[in-house]
């Protein structure tokens, strides 16, 4: 025994100090599980963080290495179970379908639509409201307006075209308005 050293000095050592002595074996074990250097390093780091924050659960005098390896192993298998439940979305297609446009974008687009709609001649607005927003057939709208079916069709088509120009919309562009009546007014399929 070295003079001045207590035979029981290892028992009085802070268990956190011992964690560092097991990093290399932990990394080797993590590498054998993951077969990927980067993932192994992440796994060791996660293990050290968990061990450090839960050091009060470690019983001094027991096998620190076994405790650390158990944490590492459990972390690895927990991540694998979690990964099985997750779906790879490399191109972002699934995420895109899950996202929702903010409501304020719809309100802003609706404000722009109303401003443009108000600039249309009264006959075009009337035709678009009857055929688009109210869902009447062209024949019914023509009867209500007291004019020919072709006149209502022409007014509605000219109104849609003018709205698209004012809103700077192109034919292949999808409508992003949230108000269904507004979408119906601009839609080419309404009233047919």
TrEMBL record:
<feature type="domain" description="RNA polymerase sigma factor 70 region 4 type 2">
    <location>
        <begin position="112"/>
        <end position="163"/>
    </location>
</feature>
<protein>
    <recommendedName>
        <fullName>RNA polymerase sigma factor</fullName>
    </recommendedName>
</protein>
<dbReference type="InterPro" id="IPR036388">
    <property type="entry name" value="WH-like_DNA-bd_sf"/>
</dbReference>
<keyword id="KW-0238">DNA-binding</keyword>
<keyword id="KW-0805">Transcription regulation</keyword>
<dbReference type="InterPro" id="IPR039425">
    <property type="entry name" value="RNA_pol_sigma-70-like"/>
</dbReference>
<dbReference type="InterPro" id="IPR000838">
    <property type="entry name" value="RNA_pol_sigma70_ECF_CS"/>
</dbReference>
<feature type="domain" description="RNA polymerase sigma-70 region 2">
    <location>
        <begin position="21"/>
        <end position="85"/>
    </location>
</feature>
<dbReference type="InterPro" id="IPR007627">
    <property type="entry name" value="RNA_pol_sigma70_r2"/>
</dbReference>
<keyword id="KW-0731">Sigma factor</keyword>
<dbReference type="InterPro" id="IPR013325">
    <property type="entry name" value="RNA_pol_sigma_r2"/>
</dbReference>
<dbReference type="InterPro" id="IPR013249">
    <property type="entry name" value="RNA_pol_sigma70_r4_t2"/>
</dbReference>
<dbReference type="Pfam" id="PF08281">
    <property type="entry name" value="Sigma70_r4_2"/>
</dbReference>
<comment type="similarity">
    <text>Belongs to the sigma-70 factor family. ECF subfamily.</text>
</comment>
<keyword id="KW-0804">Transcription</keyword>
<dbReference type="Pfam" id="PF04542">
    <property type="entry name" value="Sigma70_r2"/>
</dbReference>
<dbReference type="InterPro" id="IPR014284">
    <property type="entry name" value="RNA_pol_sigma-70_dom"/>
</dbReference>
<dbReference type="InterPro" id="IPR013324">
    <property type="entry name" value="RNA_pol_sigma_r3/r4-like"/>
</dbReference>
